[in-house]
Specification:
homodimer; mainly alpha; two-stranded antiparallel sheet; 19 helices; 4 strands
């Protein structure tokens, strides 16, 4: 048994390969499905081309960013020896895997969208199968590449004759690469998708009564491209970095239990996160087979069964894995660790993630009071709609934050800092299936768009709408996990930074730390304003272009001439690329500048950015989600005080304003903050040996 | 000389009395001025009655709150001896002085408003004189009652044969009383004024083309009452508590330099803040004589001369006062304090307040880019207007927070914790004139409202509008001081809490403290959502009442019948009273609950509430101010891309939505947060001896 445990690390890459192989078979299967009529194929080709064009442009810019950071890393001579350039290798690998995960996911999504539309002609079941398969390709690629990359590098570096702290420090470059690419991808993709979405929505105002996804709207292809580059590729890179960050954070904190300090342990606590993540892959693959729906049934049930089934299996598996790998108990720094304590911490993470997800659903779901309140306030116009939505977003921070605080305290009770890290990992161990469920949403959304543009029968659109609506709820739960895990991961990385920078205490009553706390807490506000400003500017350009096309292209208004879709795609692309640079560089450079000024101020800054970032992320995501669903609620004909309001009514117009304001909140700045807080922590962790 | 210094404390109450006497003479002078026509007098009487009715109702409720807290304080047996009930006396005195300051200020304002209108018939100069005199009554009452109350109690308690720590602990009840009343007054007044304002604005939608302040609008009296109970009485209580908080915070931190610890010092460092504040009173009185304007001139110049002139004199006076009272240098806890260092800290405070004020002006002034950007975005509708305003508000946090962080670090360098406290005091030492300038704004606003309702000639309204517009800028600068001083005062109180609770280090890497930080940072979000929700609910009731009146009162629409103004006043009053309770109690009870659970968690909570509260306050106040002025910019006919937009245009409608959203931001939740963070710190400070 001991021999098995000692060598278990060599099995981990195989689990990563298994995930990639699963993706591959799903991909082959999807490719075989019909893409429908010529018109549908052509539309989907437009979307695909636009998405590929964007990623190409984006990755070209990112290549420069990656090369420059890699050179800086290599020359900063971390370990003071000749092999210090290896951290650049980790960094490049991390950036590459992140980019690749996003790219593959997006390729799968742009294949699956039109095939979902075609399958929706046959029924709900076949449509769900294709949409979910498309999502699962994304999910499995993310976890597969994450595990494969991390474990392979770990094996290579472990043979370098370094001590384990050194190994993990060099390995943390992988996380830095992943986070850097993720931030740019999230911000760039987020700006793209919302510039196109807001632009397309407002363009509808130019021509009275132009419905959503109408093929005459020149911005409509850009809008659908946006779903893929923002909600799919951006989210893929986002979860890739969360996943990798949680694993690395746990490895760093587990590295203190080396055999020189704790006789009972060798590298078990370091390898444990990889093993748990690997088990999560297998269980996620099994979980995908639970996702099914019959005609007329509710797809929610199948998705829930997949997600919660996997989570349930994961609880059982974690218990046995932790019990097997870790010793019964050990002492370190006057704290008695137990394997059971570590297991409880994992449980806390899973429970906290689920709870936050359910709370998110309450604040953003159409069935509950908050969204109904926003809808009621829309009767008195857009101002009260906005006030109500901002209020819902702000109040929705209360319970998640209390849960996060309780999880921190609880996980720490059970297993100290290692407990906090493993709790984050607990939330993310089932990322494979969670991401599959998340990515299925935008695929269904796209499928509906294609149905509309191709002017297919109403029932097709109804089926894809049903899939899409379910996607909103599952996305809410996914966001809960993302935010909760971001908070815990950031704290784990924060503790890891303290260890590596040799800071034992961060006394907040010291002015330099308090100053750092203030500035750190401000950064999410500044970052959000940059992201929102970017969306506003890009959307404005889009509207001007749409107006130009309607003015200059004869026959466009009547539907006899084709719009110049690619011009709009180009505008979104250029704006997104240009606008993602400044916030991205800010996130990377601020910790470096502050860190070299004072490593303690940097600690204060990280604490500030984490707390305020989590709050702003929850506030913005939930306000945006609630506005979106308040609009949907009215579109489904809502009875307010005896009058029924529907599409086109005054309250509906007010709710559209709410939704438009919410768009950059929930899809650009909100989710980017999750990455921001982790990226800043990872940057600090990486530079820690230089500033200690 | 030494004898003079030893007895200087006995002169301080006289300076407080001087301020009250100045107020009294101004009041007598104003009362003598003409109230104009019968119609004007009647309207102003309506406003005055409404304001008095509201304060009566509010104070009745507050009486209960004060009595209950006073009993709890008396029974919690702080000093473990028989005189511990004296903290209740301090508390009641603080609450009483705060309420009285608000009441007197409001009485003066409701006297000055109609007389300003009448004087505006004669010219700009006479109107400014009355409006500003009305404001200065408020300003001098606030500082006079503050200094008189604090110094008298200090003299009494100093004769109790207690040690100085005990004296100041009992004295801090005064600050608690002031903060408690201030929070309820700010929240209640803020809800009142914005419910009436939003209600009145939206009621304008009910009847096409009903202009602002039209006498047919039943909510218009409530709206004008709101200016007095929110912007005057609320602000008076607010600044009273800031002023008192800054003085007490400095006294607590100065109390460590007693003769047993520092041979060179007796109580000089404790008395210094009172002396500086007393000097500020005299200089503020002198400053009021600088405020003058000629017909056709710009009132801004006179106000600036008054404000900056007083600040300049204060710098000189501080130098001599500090040099005279404090010894050249002394050692304490390995830190070398110098009188020059203390003076530099005062300077930092004054400079930081002015800088933050100027930045606030940049982000909210009609002459600068941010407001112009919002106005441009209004061309594409209310959604982009809202996005732009939120962006401006968020980005406006950056520089003020950096200045605050730098002030904390700088003031600490010069004079340790005492430096931070004295910097806050530096900002607030000229509160007398600052508040006079602040309170002059709503008086001018009211004067304009009366001119409109009484249907006076256009030129009268133009003159009051000119005064009002200047008021907006000066209010922005005042807000900068309020926010900056709140941050520093909260930190000073925070340090005072640590000392009294015997906490030497707050290690943020401890989970219990990190948990406190998270929950603390969340509270301003929850608090803001409560305040905004309250405004939304109350405004809705108001709109329904307005609709009812137009439906049921024959002749109202045509202007032949009078509206039932008092019904609307009643709705605002009841809503404000009902809705202020929950957020108010939350602010008081949370620190108590958390503090008894863990005094360290409470420290983390205070740090969180301070950082996030400052950010949310700046964000909301500036977003609201910027939206307001973007609307004003368009109302002054704005040329955007060659087209001139004015009142009634589509961009104007969009900007009205922005302004309506901004109303609760800038006048309810935003400014309440300043008090929230200090109230929580004061509550902690007061309970510190119980939980140490």
């Amino acid at each position: 048994m001991q021999l098995f445990i000692d060598n278990i690390i060599y099995f981990i890459p195989l689990l990563g390969l298994a995930a990639l192989f699963f993706s591959y078979t799903k991909n082959v299967w999807i490719t075989k499905q019909s893409t429908g009529s010529e018109k549908m194929t052509k539309i989907s080709q437009h979307i695909r081309d636009g998405a590929i064009a964007f990623l190409k442009t984006e990755y070209k810019v990112l290549l420069w960013v990656v090369v420059i950071i890699a050179i800086l890393l290599a020359y900063s001579n971390f370990g003071n020896d000749e092999s210090s350039w290896l951290i650049s290798v980790s960094f490049i690998m991390g950036a590459f895997c992140s980019g690749l995960a996003g790219f593959l996911g997006m390729m799968a999504a742009t294949k699956a969208n039109v095939r979902t539309t075609e399958a929706a002609k046959r029924g709900l079941g076949p449509a769900l199968e294709i949409a979910f398969s498309g999502g699962s390709i994304m999910g499995m690629n993310v976890v597969g590449l994450g595990i494969l990359g991390l474990s392979t590098l770990f094996i290579v570096y472990s043979n370098m004759d370094w001590d384990v702290t050194r190994v993990i420090n060099v390995l943390s470059g992988f996380s830095l690469g992943a986070s850097s690419v993720a931030l740019f991808a999230r911000v760039g993709g987020g700006i793209y998708t919302k510039a196109a979405d807001v632009g397309a929505d407002l363009a509808g105002k130019v021509i009275e009564g132009l419905p959503e996804d109408d093929h005459r709207n020149p911005a409509t292809i850009a809008d659908n491209v946006g779903d893929n580059v923002g909600d799919v590729a951006g989210m893929g890179a986002d979860l890739f970095e969360s996943y990798v960050g949680a694993i690395i954070g746990t490895m760093v904190l587990g590295a203190v239990f080396t055999s020189s300090q704790v006789p009972e342990l060798n590298l078990e606590a370091v390898i444990l996160p990889l093993v748990l993540a690997g088990a999560g892959i297998i269980l996620s693959i099994i979980g995908t087979y639970f996702v099914k729906v019959k005609e007329g049934g509710n797809p929610q049930k199948g998705l829930n069964l997949g997600e919660f089934g996997t989570a349930g299996m994961m609880v059982v598996a974690s218990y046995f894995i932790i019990k097997t790998i870790l010793p019964e108990s050990w002492m370190y720094n006057d704290f008695e660790y137990t394997s059971l304590g570590v297991f409880y911490s994992t449980l806390i993470g899973l429970a906290a993630g689920t709870l936050i997800g359910l709370i998110t659903e309450y604040y953003t779901g159409t069935e509950y009071k908050p969204v109904h309140n926003i809808a009621y306030q829309s009767v008195t116009g857009s101002a009260t709609t906005i006030i109500a939505g901002l209020g819902v977003g702000m109040s929705s921070t209360a319970f998640p934050v209390i849960i996060i605080a309780a999880s921190i305290i609880g996980a720490f009770e059970f297993a100290n800092l290692y407990g906090i890290a493993i709790a984050a990992l607990g939330m993310l161990s089932t990322t494979g299936i969670q991401l599959a469920v998340d990515a299925y949403g935008p695929i269904s959304d796209n499928a509906g768009g294609i149905a509309e543009m191709a002017e297919l029968p109403k029932e097709v659109r109804e089926r894809t709408d049903k899939l899409d609506a379910v996607g909103n709820t599952t996305a809410a739960i996914g966001k809960g996990f993302a935010i909760g895990s971001a908070a815990l991961t950031a704290l784990a990385l924060f503790s890891a930074y303290m260890q590596q920078a040799e800071i034992s205490i961060i006394d907040i009553s010291k002015p330099i730390i308090m100053g750092g706390l203030f500035i750190g807490a401000m950064l999410p506000f500044l970052f959000s304003s940059m992201a929102m400003g970017a969306v506003g500017r890009a959307a404005k350009k889009m509207i001007i272009e749409v107006e130009r096309q309607f003015r200059e292209i004869p026959g466009l208004r009547e539907g006899t001439a084709e719009a110049e879709y690619s011009k709009c795609v180009e505008i979104s692309t250029n704006a997104a690329i240009k606008e993602m640079i400044l916030p991205g560089l800010m996130a990377i450079s601020v910790p470096v500048i502050v860190g070299f000024a004072s490593k303690e101020m940097l600690a204060g800054l990280l604490a500030g950015v984490t707390t305020s970032g989590v709050l702003m992320a929850i506030f913005q995501s939930n306000a945006g989600g609630a506005w979106d669903n308040a609009k949907k609620l009215i579109e489904g004909n809502l009875n307010i005080d005896g009058i029924i309001y529907g599409k086109g009514s005054e309250p509906h117009k007010a709710s559209v304003v709410g939704d438009t304001v919410g768009d950059p909140f929930k899809d650009t700045s909100g989710p980017s903050l999750n990455i921001l807080i982790k990226l800043m922590s990872v940057v600090s962790l990486v530079i820690a040996p230089l500033i200690k």
